[in-house]
Amino acid sequence: MQISRYSAPEFDPYGDNRQTDTDAGWRAPVAPGPLAAVLSLPGSKSLTNRELVLAALADGSSTLRAPLWSRDSELMIEGLRALGTRFERREGHGGFGDDLVVTPADELLGSTTIDCGLAGTVMRFLPPVAALALGPTTFDGDEGARRRPMGGSIEALRALGVDLDDDGRGALPFTVHGTGRVAGGEVAIDASASSQFVSGLLLSAPRFERGLDLRHTGERLPSLPHIEMTIAALAARGVEVEQPERGRWRVAPGTIRAIDVDIEPDLSNAAPFLVAALVAGGSVTITGWPSETTQVGAQLAELLPLFGARVERAESRLTVHAPEPGADGGRGIRGVDLDLSEAGELVPNLVALAALADGPSTFTGIGHIRHHETDRLAALAAELNGLGGRVTELDDGLRVEPAPLHGGPWRAYADHRMATSGAIVGLAVPGVVVDDIDSTSKTLPQFTQLWGKLLA
Ligand SMILES: O=C(O)C1=C[C@@H](OP(=O)(O)O)[C@@H](O)[C@H](O)C1
Ligand SMILES: C=C(OP(=O)(O)O)C(=O)O
Q: What ranges does the record give for the region Disordered, renumbered to this chain (predicted)?
């Protein structure tokens, strides 16, 4: 059975209510008035792509219930399939597509090429798996993917005894010459450019002959919650990750258990919808909000009140209410001063919100997001300033000062979160046109339909 690439699921629960496309792109709809939306969202990218890798390395078949179906997860599926993993779609009941049964290969086989697209999880999680496969595996991706740092993965694999050909830039493309076994053992890397170097090694580590003793040598380690998510996903499959000190992880060789897992909704993809409540007024509710989670998007419940929102939890729903209007009758969005080193993937949407605030904001601790889908600090400054904003790049962040915005083009840079940030600004500013709204298919192919439902 073939799994289509980059596709929205066959079943569209909200019907086709896309906004009109113009030649220049997608005209972001202005909010018609205060919102009263209740939305469900598809599965988490980060959870889905971890579970796909672990399921492929496990000791039997695993079922992923309500996984994400998007470009990033489909690239992960295709990559694992190329190495011999088997997949079977089963009818799901979550409303966003099928469940997925994953059966590990009897023997992982290389002699293949893996397209990473622009997915950090694919380019950092699969090379260690390819090292466990017999035969060469070449990794490449989109043009933008060749600019994303890969040095941490490349150097670590070499230090663990893996033969690898690259052009010395510490980036895609490269070839992993898998021999069916990885010696493993001690390794030190600088993961300050991406936590995914650490997560990728940890996910495969139980299959290394001597396991893994990994140390981070850099000064900063971004996105710690994502490493905690990796550790929790391993623990659920019977693998303990010891942390003898900060920035060090030990994994003993052993079995990764096959289990069935429910994938939580993507809480980082909840950000544009929840932020919309502050911009448009009214309230937005997301259903299926987990009571406990390792997803960094859960921090929205604490972050959005700093901007003036009121957040309410009731059973499995999270509701964000708009702030009280300001003295001038404006939106009442407050400026913030935030270190977002843990939550880099929330930055674009929160910066879009800050651009509509009454006071200035400073975001720090996020130099690493220059290495995300695009240089997000440069991209946010360029696009907001292009609409009249006053955004200044800092070494490790952004300063956003209030300024009246006007309509105009908004470039997405193939970055799903830049695209959704343009949609946020467009709620308040007529005439914002996002050049590539389809970039949202990276993690949320239903974005425009859900945005239509938000505003209906
Ligand atoms: O492991 C993961 O699933 C992710 C880790 C983070 O990467 P960085 O540490 O490179 O920021 C995050 O920003 C990305 O969206 C997803
Ligand atoms: C940084 C992100 O993606 P990736 O998994 O490609 O690193 C993101 O989704 O914000």
A: 1-27
